[in-house]
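Data card: per-record layout.
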Amino acid sequence: MTLIISILLFALYRQLVTEQQNQVQQRLMGEMQRYQQLALNVDRRSFAAQVRAADPRTALVAWRNSADLIGALSLIPEDIPLLPQTVDFPILTGGPDRLHILTGGLAVTAYGPVLIATRTDHLAALIKKFIRAAATAVALTIVLTLALGLLFSKAILRRLVQYNRLAIRIERGQYDTRLPISWRQDEFDMLAGQFNRVLDTLEHNLNAVRGVTDNIAHDLRTPLSHLRIGLEQLKDQEPEARAEACDGLIEELDHCLATFDAMLSLTRIEEGKQQLDLQPLSLQQLCQDLVEMAGVLAEEQEQQLSLSLGREYQLSGDKHLLFQALFNLVDNAIKYAGHGAHIELVQQGPVLEIRDNGPGIPDEAKERVFERLVRLDPSRNQQGTGLGLSMVKAILSRHNAIIRLLDNDPGLVVRIQFQP
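The structure for this 420-residue chain is written out next.
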């Protein structure tokens, strides 16, 4: 602010000086032309009378007629240039301000050179007043700017100290801490809002990790306990019974390993580390293969499995992974819809719906079932890893598809929307 105001004041000063110089120059040139024309039209006596009658408020004129000096000045200084060139020179007067500064030059006329000058010391005084006023304005600007800058910096520093204090709390593990957002909605509030959203995501991920840990402990504790008990009992069993017991223990161990293999596979798919074998696929053909493969499972439960095909849709995808994800959804419907249920696959263009008339899923659990190792309480009597729907969502996301769970009143609708 100080620099800008200084530049503006300097520009105004230069404009003022230039304007004053132009006015002095125009006045002197006008008087020069007047006396040059006067010398051509009147005789020497009349010319001298005009010089004596010159108004000193307009210009100070001096002309040497033979040995006499006529006009407002008592002498003509040496080295006075010809107009339009000018020079500043001092004169002494009898008034209170004895020393005056004049600016003038010589005008060449038919009766000889005439000194034409005008006072400029009052203009210099005006410029000095302007300089003092400008210096005062700059000084006040500096003081005001420093004061406002100090207040502004203190306000910023106060918010930064607050943010730093809250950051220390977050670093100590208090992840529910959030940065305050004021009514001003300035840059700090925008930064705080973005940081709070990052904290929301971090807290959600940490809760998800805790949930996964709890689910792993819950799901693997039973088979691991069975393994330990079985191993202890092997010592006291007969060789024939020991082989049968080992088969059961191996089955329990395979279930544990399958859980960890599924988690590793899910991570590779979510992070894009598993390459997709992309090829043109027909959604209608996939649905027909699903019904053919799952028909036997539905017959065992005395369920009706039907297929309704609509407009054809071609997509590019990994046939093995995509079939795995869709079959997992159909298999879940067969498992949990109940004995004698009706399951229907409806395909229309890029939309595929898997409908059943079973017990369905509560609204509050429709998003949670896609999390890792989340199994609703009614499903814990079924053997599984709890990663099926997480795997389904990861595979469909890699194929640019959106999955939603809706109510079928009664039952559940799994809607899959493939994006072009």
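Known properties of this structure: The two ends are 56 Å apart (CA to CA). The chain is about 55% helix and 20% strand.

See the next section for split statistics.
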